[in-house]
């Protein structure tokens, strides 16, 4: 028979069809949106906004294949190389602490 095994189908879908699935069309098509979002979720580590959980730095090319996930609000967080947590903890965000003085 010529039925394709699941891995072949998966590879075919992942590489070529992400741009066919995730494009400006998702705005009008909720089914397409859901399909795109599901596919993007498979590589969710690419889109983590916490550096410790993000695989974007290590898997940049693999993640970049899924750049079109931006159409369903999956965006890459690029972290500046340097002290990871120090920038967050050292200065409290004063604008949140209380009402701004007028």
Could you characterize the architecture of this molecule?
There is one protein chain. The protein is mainly α. The chain is built from 5 helices and no strands. The chain has helices spanning 6-21, 30-41, 60-64, 86-90, 94-97. The longest helix is centred in the N-terminal third of the chain and has 16 residues, at 6-21. The chain is flat. Mean pLDDT is 77; it is low at 82-95.
Summarize the topology.
Blueprint: H1 6-21, H2 30-41, H3 60-64, H4 86-90, H5 94-97
Proportion in β-strands: under 5%
By DSSP, the count of extended strands is 0
The coarse silhouette is: flat
Helical region count? 5
First-residue to last-residue Cα separation: 76 Å
Main β-sheet description: none
Derived from helix and strand composition plus strand pairing, the structural class reads mainly alpha
Radius of gyration: 19 Å
**Mean pLDDT score, rounded?**
77
Q: Which regions have little confidence, pLDDT < 50, spanning 5+ residues?
A: 82-95
| Strand/helix succession | HHHHH
Helicity level, as a percent range?
40-55%
Short descriptors:
5 helices; single chain; mainly alpha; 41% helix; 102 residues
Give a quick summary of the entry.
The longest helix has 16 residues, at 6-21. This protein is flat.
């Amino acid at each position: 028979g010529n039925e394709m095994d699941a891995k072949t189908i998966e590879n075919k879908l992942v590489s070529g069809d992400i741009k066919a699935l995730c494009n400006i069309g998702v705005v009008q098509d909720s089914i397409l949106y859901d399909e795109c979002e599901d596919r993007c979720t498979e590589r969710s580590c690419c889109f983590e906004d916490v550096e410790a959980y993000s695989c974007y730095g290590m898997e940049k090319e693999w993640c970049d294949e899924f750049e079109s996930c931006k159409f369903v609000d999956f965006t890459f967080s690029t972290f500046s190389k340097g002290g990871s947590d120090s920038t967050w903890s050292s200065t409290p965000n004063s604008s949140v602490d209380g009402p701004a003085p007028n």
